[in-house]
Write a structure and sequence with these properties.
This protein is 45% helix and 12% strand. The chain is built from 14 helices and eight strands. It has a five-stranded parallel β-sheet, sandwiched between helices. Strand 7 and strand 8 form a beta hairpin. Helix 6 runs parallel beside helix 7. The longest helix has 17 residues. The protein is globular, with a radius of gyration of 24 Å. About 2% of the residues have low confidence.
Length: 328
């Protein structure tokens, strides 16, 4: 009786089939949202200012650790972007330094390396691989280089390849890294080998500052959207697929990227022949099943071009190129 009474008191209540879309909320543009958020006050300005001042008193210690060969990682609640910029202005004004916003969705390690070789080292050379670029930086020892990376755990830098390149970059003798993390599982990005290369010193830099800059590029139900799928979402879904499915998607992505920005799509039959050539499928039914899964995950779409249905990946050409560089 007691058991029945317990479950009876916690039985499911009535549910509704209404959705947020039914409210027909007015969507605001990004500038309007930013303006409204900037007017909001936390009510703890004095306490936040005191925290900020406390962190700035550690700047000399930070710089000393950098000169001794350590790299710094700042963790804690609140945006640490202003803190890093203040550190650069106060301690690095006479040194070569660069602020990198790792939370940008389109940022790749190749962009970071290009900025170092082109902007900091003044080289206009082209490089065949990231290792060639790392070797060039490693051999350019005329100046100390300081990299301040906001969100080294950014969505587009969380893959193993990006973290490996950043770890090797931070291990270069004349390169010094100050990075921030915000994801609770960020330390899991680094295995023993990467941790040894990074050679971190950890600092609690809780600020309780708003993440307004970091979240300005995030999607919202209240902000008008473009409709293109997010690169981070595509990466997350792809990693959950089988190796064979990844191979099929890579084939389509590579063909679309090599075809240029004006790519309209490829017919099923043409794509099927390409998959057969790569031994990815043994029948058109197998490919149709895989394409259905891709469509369910919003990885690919179809459209009618000159009377024929064609397949394509609904992302911009540049984003697709960054995806291929980071994942394959």
């Amino acid at each position: 009786y007691l058991t029945e009474g317990y479950f009876h008191s916690r039985r499911a209540g009535k549910t509704s089939n209404k959705t947020l879309h039914d409210l027909q909320l007015q969507e605001l543009d990004h500038n309007k949202i930013t303006k409204l958020l900037s007017k909001m006050k936390t009510g703890y300005d004095k306490e936040q200012a005191a925290l900020f001042a406390e962190h700035t008193r550690s700047f000399a210690q930070w710089f000393n650790y950098l000169t001794e060969g350590y790299n710094l990682v700042c963790y804690g609640v609140g945006s640490k972007r202003k803190l890093l910029i203040h550190f650069a202005k106060k301690m690095l004004k006479y040194d070569y330094h660069m602020v990198i916003n790792g939370y940008f969705p389109n940022l790749t390690v190749r962009d970071i390396l290009n900025s170092i070789t082109n902007d900091m080292l003044g080289s206009g050379a082209t490089f065949r691989s990231t290792q060639d670029q790392l070797n060039f930086i490693r051999n350019s020892k005329q100046n100390q280089l300081y990299l301040l990376i906001n969100n080294i755990d950014g969505a587009n830098l969380r893959n193993d390849k990006s973290q490996q390149v950043l770890a090797e970059l931070s291990a270069i003798e004349h390169v010094h890294v100050v990075a921030t993390i915000d994801h609770i599982n960020a330390p899991l990005l680094w295995d023993d080998q990467k941790s040894k290369l990074f050679n971190w010193m950890w600092f609690d830099c809780t600020t309780f500052d708003s993440y307004s800059d970091e979240t300005s590029i995030e999607t919202s139900l209240m902000v008008k959207q473009t409709g293109a799928i997010a690169l981070s979402s595509m990466t997350h879904v792809l990693r959950s697929l089988t190796p064979n499915a990844r191979g099929i998607f890579k084939l389509l992505a590579t063909f679309q990227q090599e075809s240029g920005p004006d790519f309209q799509g490829i017919t099923f039959q043409d794509f099927y022949m390409k998959c057969r050539e790569k031994f990815l499928v043994n029948s058109d039914a197998t490919l149709r099943t895989q394409l259905t899964e891709f469509k369910d995950h919003m990885l690919i779409k179809t459209r009618n071009v000159d009377g024929s249905d064609v397949l394509y990946i609904p992302v911009e050409h540049k984003i697709l190129q960054q995806f291929l560089e980071s994942e394959f």
